[in-house]
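Re-running Carbamoyl phosphate synthase arginine-specific large chain to confirm reproducibility after the cluster update. Everything else is unchanged from the original entry.
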Amino acid sequence: MKINKKKKVLILGSGALKIGEAGEFDYSGTQAIKALKEEGFYTILINPNIATVQTSKEISDKIYFLPLTSFFIKKVIDKEKPKGILLSFGGQTALNCGIQLFKEGILERKKIKVLGTSIESIIQSEDRELFRRNLNRMNIKTTKSFVVNSVDHAISYALQIGFPIIIRSAYTLGGLGSGFAKNIHDLKKIVNKAFSYSSQVVIEEYLEGWKEIEYEIVRDQYDNCIAICNMENFDPIGIHTGESIVVAPSQTLTNSEYYKLRELSFHIARDLKIVGECNVQFALDPKSEDYRVIEVNARLSRSSALASKATGYPLAFVSAKLSIGYGLNELKNSVTKTTYAFFEPALDYIVCKIPRWDLKKFYGVSNRIGSSMKSVGEVMAIGGSFEEALQKGIRMLDIGMLGFINNTKNKKKIESIHLLKHLLEKPTDQRIMYLEEALEKGISIKEIHLLTKIDLWFLYQLDNIFQTKKDLLFYDDWLNIPDELFIKAKKEGFSDRQIASLFFDEKKNESIYAIEKKIRKYRKQKNILPFVRQIDTLAAEYPAHTNYLYLTYHAVQHDIIYEKDGKSVVTLGSGVYRIGSSVEFDWCCVNALNTIKKESYRSIMINYNPETVSTDFDVCDRLYFEELTLERVLDILDLEEPKGTIVSMGGQIPNNLVVKLHENKVPILGTSPSSIDKVENRYKFSKAMDDLDIGQPKWKELSDYNSIYRFVEEVDYPILVRPSYVLSGADMSVISNHEELEIYLKNKVSISPEHPLVITEFIKNAKEIELDAISKDGNILYYAISEHVEFAGVHSGDATLVYPPQNIYLSTLKEILRISKIISKHFNITGPFNIQFLSKENVVKVIECNLRASRSFPFVSKVSHFNMIELATQVLLGRKKNKKEPDFFTTNFLGVKASQFSFSRLQNADPILSVDMTSTGEVGCLGHTFNEAILKAMISVGYTIPKKNILISGGPISSKLDILNVCKLLHEKKYILFSTEGTNNFLSNNGIPSIRVNWPDIKKDQNVIDLIKQRKFDLIINIPKNLSKSELDNDYEIRRSAVDFNIPLLTNTRLAKAFIQAFCNLSMDELPITSLDEYI
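Result of re-run:
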């Protein structure tokens, strides 16, 4: 029976993107809200992630940018009085909130119905002990495991099971708090850490070498069950599924194994009374049909998003409809429009998911992969064979790899066979490269299998690619390759550039790009072209037309007919999520697609990220789940012949293609490619600023030591040092003195004209300010100016942003606008752009300009109630638009954007803010005062208001002076302050009592690390003296222990001051519960 319509339903989002809980929940939540609205429900969304599509006013009826804690959810419930609540579409965050509301009796008291799977069933799947008992009752095998409540219990049970064992935390996501223990020492360390994230810890047998298989199951309230997709991990048990390459459908299971696990999945879904979707994970013995159930997720998950995109089955949409009472046989398949949802999708292609890591951005972190997630994004490639899908997927990672083979620029050759075998046995984020290296060195497939436990079938497919490379190299010139071999290579996923690289000779005066262009021309002449296939969920068994497309060489004709009427507009997506490019660019792409449709053009999207809304079935007129490489984009544009291509919405990947697309006569909508090139090139942009008499910090690109020392003498310390051409601050350092510079230069492999360093003067205590704007023909139509809370030195992607600005002189704002108008006019900008400024003592300098949408566009658009991307897209399409003045001088509210960090996932990483970006997500909260907005934002990214004890390690004297007044405030508010030696003396000299604690290396009473382990502190403030390695190492143990024992940590004085002033001047009960539409 369906529940009454026209009722209010509360949806809980997942909050900021973090490792283990990322953009997939924007996709699933957006689909769920659309499904409910289609049925006439009034939707109320709580999600502080301001960059998401689901928090757009055209998606939800009511949006609350509030922390996802029971305190705030209860307040919204009291205000809105919803009749139903959806918990399955916001990841572990939403599920844990729902369980807490249930345990506190809120749902029962307020008569709120949990839509879909019941709370009791969710608890049965989340509580490890209940889950194990339940499955044992059904005679379904689970791993031998014990729930433990102390370290001593853990040791006792571990000895019963036998080492090695795996440790897991209940009610967590992405393997948080998990790990492998080979001995008692490892066990103690991991269990202690696990208890910081969950009150329930499980130790279980480690099924080394077993396969990991997943099933996505949908069940309705009438007990109808279907398997949407089954997936197989390329890597064996022991590597988290989020860290593994995953293939759909499974490739190495027998028919008997497939159906056995499918039936077990149905049995579990029925027993748990799942209504909607669940994910069942199995371990399967490769030597028999023995199995174990690892876990069940009674909600939409990362795997659900992959399964939905892999099959074309709208899982989240269907699950939301089932949650309000529909049966599977009552729902139309919204992709095909001709069949019903009560069917199991059929796949006539292979899908490959590959994770992306950004571990080099984190000082101290190991690149080993295992039971806990470290990856920050993933790609999904579709091919007619495993080889084709895998090679496409590797290129999609956007880490410079050409495919499985010939990646000489991306890897250091490993001379030692012994070391290579060790690296195969102990997997790292470079695993796929080492597999190619092993084949190159002649290690047999069987030995690789013994070392890695990867199934032989997968290894033989990799060997196929390797053997084809050898076949290609038999010929001394690519022109001599027979057509049959050329086609075979293309079917195995070889790109034109990859083939070109095989025949590149440094001695000849011809670049790889030049060879690639010739290969493309030759291929087109020979009619060696990919064909467009549609994903219709039916493997073409029934006639159906869909807009969900991919290209393959395993086809003989196109599945669709092209209009070629110039009424299509292609938007290039943002590709894989990584640190520096995430859901904010997907928001930009989706809004661009919506505007293109409104303006009566066909909207075409090219993207390959399964976590995104832009790769959803109903967002555009045609979706190409494809690579964002020059070759593939040109293949699609040749077929589409669009009016133009938009490159300014998807971040850096589309921007990097602009010049080469222009060379290939592709019409680019908006700012000219030559202007984009001038701004992207540091020399050209700097010269333009000099010509325009616009100030900028002094800098030079230098390639020898003497030049470096001479320039440093000229500008003085501190300086900013970075390799030429970096993104998101990769490998940048602030150097404070000669000794640090010596250490930095010593650690650099080489400095040469080919590998120069960029040295920039670093302006201390400068305010960083950003301008986001839209121009047409060089004239600014609309702009938004925001300020950073932190001084310059914290990457703009990690900084806390305030809009409208609260602490900038009017004369500074006028100067920023004056400079921006000059830059816009000079480069004749049409479309979105972003400029970053430094301001000190009212002197304004430009530090960066991007002729594309920036990561702050969703934030400023939502706070200002003005969709800047809609205006930008209209301008790109040639529409005449009038200038609009922003009203931030008269508004009575503001927004604060705070960054989410995932250091708890990254063992040994130093949780310090610096010029290198490390945040994985963001939130944005609104308030009528700065204190209100920042307090909500900080709580939204995991901070809590301290109850009693605060540890302060104040850093240099300038920092200590900076936080003196807030230390006085904390003392006045009756907080007990603890401090390290220097800070203790400073506070005492200023009349503020504090309890002295000893440094980590002083093994006496009141040792700071012992106190952290005992969880004596509610907040830790640790300010490094500078960003030199020696200083960072000094305080590292304190910072790292804070993260490992889940204690809130602040490492920036200005942010610490802002947070302390907020929670000392505002109580939680004083925070108003206000929806986005109420801020006017």
